Amino acid sequence: MIKLMIVEDEPLERLALRKMIHRLSYDMEVVEDARDGEEAIDKVKLLRPHILLMDIRMPEKNGLEAQEEIIRAFPNTKTIILTAYSDFNYAREAIQYGVVDYLLKPVPPQVLKTALDKAISSLHQDEIRDSRSTAIKPPELEENLIDAALNYIHHHIKTDITLADVAGHVHLNPQYFSRLFKSRTGATFTEYVSVQKISRAKDMLLATNMPIYRIAIDLGFSDAAYFSRVFFKYEQLTPLQFKKKAEGQGN
User: Does the predicted TM-score (pTM) go above 0.70?
Assistant: First the structure.
């Protein structure tokens, strides 16, 4: 099922968009909202929505700044920009960052429907293109490509490595590479990279006295809070709890 995320700092705007989408009767899941650009980036990594409805003017990080980061990591995400400002420069930047449509508030239901139809059509076109790509890769070549991808990941684990980076390194379409990676490793790209980063973080916690925020930065996380959430997801302990527990067992 197609997943959609609303990125908007105004609660009433978020509620109005949810109601409008519900009335349009799409077969899609509207996942948890994001209230600003920074939160959008974190939640896209966790929830992997296919479509974003994103405001431009938000605190912390605006919609176009967030889109620039999101499209690097998830190039097949379809973003529809919402704004109260009919500014040509914003529209030009939006096109540069690969948005599907640029809508002025207040958005009439039919205009939103046209934009959503365009995003869904683009998603389907991606699927058709990628299914054609799948048919021409023999198993031996696929295995070699995944080996090259894993080697690249291990050498760049301390950077903010993205699926698009690795797919580009092995010259594959990102969406096809994502499916191939999971079929060959048993994990999604994000899961695999997260596990490798957490493994490296555990070594750093045990072997050094580096503060948590410094380890987070060194491993390419956006901030210490996000690093701690990912660490807890895989270890059921915060980084500090893990370090204290290890030190207690060593005594």
Answer: no
